[in-house]
């Protein structure tokens, strides 16, 4: 199943595969007598019976969570690892020697314990339980001390099963969530190469777990060695191909989270960002964003609002990175995407993205000053920006970015000689948005004494943008009122109420006190 063209129902299959990871724990809780055969004592409080610990989250939960719910006998965990031993492998002999088992015990033990599990696939059952237990730091340490990495690598070498590969990588992903274990994981002979090779699989569940694992290790102290392993162009190009072609929402989210981790870690950024840009990183993400925006109005498409949120936040992150911003500011496609969103008459479907949209645009206008003249005279664009005001009123950074954009564009428009027709259009726009402007400003009046140092700094930035904006509005309104006052009613039969409204807006802007 190719991530670029998954078979029908591939998304559901990917989700159900991950749901199966939770199933072993649930079955153990519902059938306590079965655990006694493995030395497992389950202690569950009544209110927690309905809850399950996810086994595929990017971060392992606090160790107290699993310890409070389940007490696991170490011999049980070791028996699970034994179940995963590939028959006749070198690691099977090493494991038997470490445990003091007779060489043939691995196979005999497997037969006996498989009968107790009463499962069609005891390997998968045991693997899923280990995946779950690996979220606990004590259990993860126990596994590491009992050759779990060697066992998982041995399976990855011999198996052709996507499900087996997913479970192996998933267990390693949970192990890698424990910072104290990452160095040992990274030094395991052949492990880095094996994990990176999984990026060339065509199974979305395996790829999702691979990206989750890579994101975890790139956040760790061992990040540099992993970043260097990802350097070849063919690997980076493969990553971007997956991001741009997958229809699986989970895989898309995990791959974006992986790329975001590269941007977040300064050491990793220094190694991988320029090579990524070289193979088209920024253009790929812009194309992905454009594709997702096209799907907003298409009800036949899957709901990928969570994915769009992630992409917008990632684009915002890229726009704050100088080397990426340079590419973004010269992208006509990105400007067209932002223009389309801002001009949407009904912004309900994009309301959660609006803060990111204005943050991206503010960064673009600061770097790409060539964009400002054309946008400053695009009245539908300016109207759309004013309509975003109530959607970002609770986001200080988004609101600040929006006022910066408005100040920059209106100052540019006012600085260029306007003819009477253009002046009339701007006045009509400002009068129509007066209520939005006033509501935003009045709702953010605060007592300066109550502000923290950070809030004071942010408020100063917003205040500067608002001051520039209101000053520009005053200039436009004064000029227009002066023109109208010099005309007779026959020359311009404009109603007195419109002129009065213009004076109210002018008076408000002149007297507004932050």
Automatic annotation (TrEMBL):
Keywords: Nucleus. Residues 15-31 have a biased composition (Basic and acidic residues). Residues 32-52 have a biased composition (Acidic residues). Its main location: nucleus. Residues 1-66, 95-120 are annotated as: Disordered. The keyword Ribosomal protein does not apply. GO terms for cellular component: nucleus. InterPro entries: ARM-like, ARM-type_fold, Synovial_Prolif_Regulator. It is found in: Nucleus. PANTHER family: PROTEIN SAAL1, SERUM AMYLOID A. Belongs to the SAAL1 family. This is ARM repeat superfamily protein. It comes from Panicum virgatum (Blackwell switchgrass). The lineage of its organism: Eukaryota, Viridiplantae, Streptophyta, Embryophyta, Tracheophyta.
